[in-house]
């Protein structure tokens, strides 16, 4: 077969004459034979030649003159994009757009973003490689005129097919056919010209696809409409997510009870456990009110005795609080002057701790009315902020403990009440601590126990 | 381990085998390795046409064999049960499982890790062995890759349904949502989402791309219109042109190079789910390599378990030879020893590290209430594969299936032991508990096998089970070995 030599390329290529042929396909039974034939054909100056084989052939790239490949570049681009995208997401999503504080870790650091960046790098690189293979390999291409040559079906089985395109400038059926046969081709066939109607996707399929697409648009359009318009009907919930629970809500009606209320009043003549609070000294900080005193009080106060005490001095709000004279209403009340519970060191310590939590923010650790919140508010020059009373002011120092207790419980003028946050015993503990705090400013060295005296030193 | 390192097989050698083997479908012992002769990939007298015929005809039988139908019926039953139970779970809540304080990670996670691990052998065979130019892989890689994809499918189900409100599963992905919130990129559970998704996608693309030439073969052999259209669309118009093959080979190499670090990273990240927590018994640096070795171990065991019956049933003994099986047994033996080493070193570090919680976790594993699970794991994973030291065992297919079934049981137990023993007894003895699975747990796990085998049987029935084009490319061709007309 090596004796076959290619005829010299014809000087004046003639245009393809046969309108029923798009080229030639020659079938070979061995790799060597087809490689040899490729070289012969290319020696003729024909460039539009390809080999179809059931497996890759080594040496074919050189014979066909295929060089270079875009795939590695695609892979590098995909990997870079994936890696960069992964790191970017971790940074932008967790540190910028929605700062995500977890166990005091930095909002962004490179190491924990590596796994996602790595996986995305691989994924996008693989997409690029597969996409590139399809794109540059001309896939998908479901209709190919070469498939119509009967011999072609063995290109994926056990034959090596050489195909020459008729649009090559050097293509000449008359010259090529004998050459290919001489090179050992088992058969040489024309590639039929594609019948355009046969190659086209049937009309019915187009129609069906179009109709399906339009139908598929209906649900999203309905959803979009529902979301952008109002309706008097309750919304549809496909997944109820505990939206509807069989329970009564506050202030709702119920047919279960004769009075039609779902909220149940207390049974008359009873007191709920822990609600008795009979000891006025302990719970209200004042001496018990005799029943005739109550009878003289306005009716609203009678219903709710503590209303008598709540915000009794609201009218004074806004006045410079340090000099605020004790309001008339509060002064008339018979506050307890003795602690209604045993005071010991542990109670005072408890009070110190609670004071630090609940009071120091405004009143300051030393009770001077210089807590951090106060300082900040004054710095911002907010006109509405009232500086808390110094706990060392004379009038406060002279207040009975019951009144201090009441100030904490129900607030006073601009200061809110803390009854809901601080349990009764803790409120008394704070009062005890405030008393101790006040003593620190008026005590003399004679008040200090002998054994501690040597430890004292002058501070200013 | 001496493995073949040929690109083009020695023709002479094939001739030798041909002479020995007149019965081309029998179990020919090609496991004796003569260092002077390069071993062939296949046994018997194969030609391009005979390979095409042998592999394609399996996917072309007009009616399925009886045994296939029975197996398929059972598998579909399992699949339906799985989906029914998933429906029940979604409608009722994850309380239908045995997961409860303190073991909030019960069987679903165990099953997830089990299935993901199984998948790893496929990628290993198709990518890593490809990079090492192990040509013997060509006749088993398609099979193993299919197994990967089906195993990852089974794996993906469990984490997806264990999140509780399944309809919010998209919150796992960084999708803009009405909460204006993003997933936490410092959480290993999020890494896992990315790793498993990337792994499933890349494996599927790798598998599909590799299958294009073989789908084209089926298209060109198709005798009915339905088959021609179906395989025609699936083959995307592959024509096997020089340009396409060039791209194909490049793409295959690149994908192998990408899939190799990917497969190692996936089980590493799965192990991070555990290792980055503070639970004693989980918080160890040995987890990534230990998990990867375990994954390869269980995956190869699964390939053998499926391969032996399949080659018998579909008459593929000349393509999937004893030497293939023996090589895989050696991999199982090697990775089994790695896993055994990891079991040992965990105890050593617990003692050497001097952390009393860690020490307790391991003493509790071996002697505590789950000792039965621990010793099942050790006997299946460490002791059973030792039989592969004997060549007799490595070359008797049914013996290896038995051992590999034990390995798969053992590897499931390994994940169970890691997950459940550590969670059931952590720092605070007052919150200790004992995990008991519910029937839903058990049936769902069985159902996942149904799904796996359903997909697998469909694959065996309708797709080219052996990568024909790849086998052909490592056959001797050209020269004097022209194909009979």
Protein described:
The complex is a heterodimer of chains A (460) and B (485). With 460 residues, chain A is mainly alpha-helical. Chain A starts with 20 loop residues before the first strand and ends in an 18-residue tail after the last helix. In chain A, helix 12 packs across helix 17 (424-442). The longest helix of chain A is centred in the first third of the chain and has 27 residues, at 71-97. Chain A has helices at 31-43, 60-64, 71-97, 110-136, 173-182, 196-199, 203-228, 280-284, 291-296, 299-303, 328-331, 345-358, 360-363, 372-379, 394-398, 401-410, 424-442, and strands spanning 21-28, 49-52, 160-165, 187-192. Among the domains of chain A are: 2-69 and 138-194, Alpha-Beta Plaits (2-Layer Sandwich); 71-136, no CATH class; 320-445, Cytochrome Bc1 Complex, Chain D, domain 2. Helices cover 42% and strands 5% of the residues of chain A. With 485 residues, chain B is mostly helical. Chain B has a single domain, classed as Formate dehydrogenase/DMSO reductase fold (Up-down Bundle), CATH 1.20.1630.10. Chain B is built from 16 helices and no strands. In chain B, helix 4 packs antiparallel against helix 5 (141-162). Chain B is globular and about 70 Å long. At the A-B interface, helix 1, strand 2, helix 2, helix 3 and helix 4 of A face helix 2, helix 6, helix 8 and helix 16 of B.
